[in-house]
């Protein structure tokens, strides 16, 4: 008898997604491990991080293999492993998010039970599917910033947020305003800067398209030293920031939208005693105590209800159109997340 198959986007080589990915029929999952959950995927976001992984990371088998792509998904529980079924916390048919859900660009995905979050009915699929990686990343960046800059310096200084139009960037601006930190956003285009300013009241955002953006940033700092940078652009932009930064500034780096290495001269780092700190949401699972994790998840859902405009959607594509979805993610001036919907 022929084994059941399903469609999944798999990676067979390193490099540009157009060459490295294929939509393939693969064998269905066999018996579930005791603490695994099988989810029917309703919607899976295409994160920039997914594209970085496809382009940059090693670990692709020499033989074309089944390296499945996609990292987060909302869907319904189809089946439970024996142990997790006994606990009774999840049931077949429950609406859940897999955070993370490795291999989510597929009809179905298997996720360890500790990565499965039940979702209330009042959160739409579009919000739920993009909520947790972005929210937890922003919380981890705030934790990273606080490890590297004293509370006194944060309260007297200003913090620059690059990639200000991204979901994570807008969350950071929101958290900082709320926590009494003076944030300054830096977006690419004037239109993006204006969009963010109109969405988050009280925030100032400069645009690198403005030839005079450094003076704009300095005027938004209003005499405060820039004691931190939350950066997801990397490349030459980080070097361009140097004249604006205070000594001992912490550069918290978590993305690579601009491509290339962090453009910092070693002499500048030494001379100004900068602190460079990397952040990845993945460390939330190992570094953040369970009570704080539970608080983060509850706070993410609360914020999604109060301010859903932080988590907007642009287009949804079916799995066959995954290359169009990837192109849509990289289109300038996109507002909202891009998703794949297997059905
Ligand atoms: N470290 C982690 O654990 C982690 C987790 C999640 C995300 N990230 C990283 O965070 C970054 C943002 O992710 P996201 O999902 O929040 O993004 P997103 O919401 O999809 O942001 C997309 C926006 O980024 C802006 N952008 C694209 N290229 C840019 C560039 N070269 N310079 C400035 N802005 C640019 C574009 O805005 P405009 O066209 O309006 O300029 C685009 O609309 C990515 O680098 C991602 O890899 C890291």
From TrEMBL:
SUPFAM superfamilies: GroES-like, NAD(P)-binding Rossmann-fold domains
Pfam families, sorted: ADH_N
Keyword Repressor: no
Alphabetical list of InterPro entries matching this protein: ADH-like_N, ER, GroES-like_sf, NAD(P)-bd_dom_sf
Annotated signal peptide: none
UniProt xrefs under Gene3D superfamilies: Medium-chain alcohol dehydrogenases, catalytic domain, NAD(P)-binding Rossmann-like Domain
Keywords (A to Z) from UniProt: NADP, Oxidoreductase
Span of domain Enoyl reductase (ER): 18-340
Protein name: Alcohol dehydrogenase catalytic domain-containing protein
Organism in which the protein naturally occurs: Paraburkholderia solitsugae
Source organism phylogeny: Bacteria, Pseudomonadati, Pseudomonadota, Betaproteobacteria, Burkholderiales
């Amino acid at each position: 008898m022929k084994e059941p198959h399903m469609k999944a986007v798999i990676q067979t080589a390193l490099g540009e997604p157009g060459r490295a990915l294929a939509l393939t029929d693969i064998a269905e999952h066999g018996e579930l491990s005791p603490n695994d959950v099988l989810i029917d995927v309703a919607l899976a976001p295409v994160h920039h991080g997914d594209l970085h992984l496809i382009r940059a990371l090693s670990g692709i088998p020499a033989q074309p293999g089944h390296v499945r792509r996609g990292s987060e998904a909302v869907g319904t529980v189809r089946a439970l492993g024996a142990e997790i079924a006994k606990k009774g916390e999840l049931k077949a048919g429950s609406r859940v998010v897999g955070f993370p859900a490795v291999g989510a660009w597929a009809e179905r995905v298997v996720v360890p039970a500790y990565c499965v979050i039940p979702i209330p009915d009042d959160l739409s699929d579009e919000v739920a599917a993009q909520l947790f990686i972005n929210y937890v990343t922003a919380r981890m960046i705030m934790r990273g910033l606080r490890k590297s800059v004293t509370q006194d310096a944060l309260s007297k200084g200003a913090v620059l947020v690059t990639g200000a139009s991204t979901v994570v960037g807008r969350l950071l601006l929101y958290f900082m305003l709320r926590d009494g930190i003076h944030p300054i956003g830096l977006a690419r285009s004037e239109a993006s800067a204006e969009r963010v300013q109109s969405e988050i009241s009280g925030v100032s955002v400069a645009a690198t398209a403005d030839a005079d953006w450094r003076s704009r940033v300095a005027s938004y700092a209003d005499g405060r030293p820039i004691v931190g940078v939350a950066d997801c652009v990397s490349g030459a932009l980080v070097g361009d920031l140097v004249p604006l930064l205070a000594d001992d500034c912490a550069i918290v780096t978590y993305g690579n939208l601009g491509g290339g290495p962090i453009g910092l001269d070693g002499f500048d780092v030494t001379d100004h005693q900068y602190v460079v700190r990397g952040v990845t949401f993945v460390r939330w699972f190992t570094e953040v105590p369970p009570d704080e994790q539970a608080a983060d998840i509850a706070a993410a859902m609360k914020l999604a209800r109060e301010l859903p405009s932080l988590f907007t959607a642009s287009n949804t594509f079916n799995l066959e159109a995954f290359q169009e979805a990837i192109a849509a993610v990289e289109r300038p001036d996109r507002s909202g997340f891009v998703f794949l919907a297997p059905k």
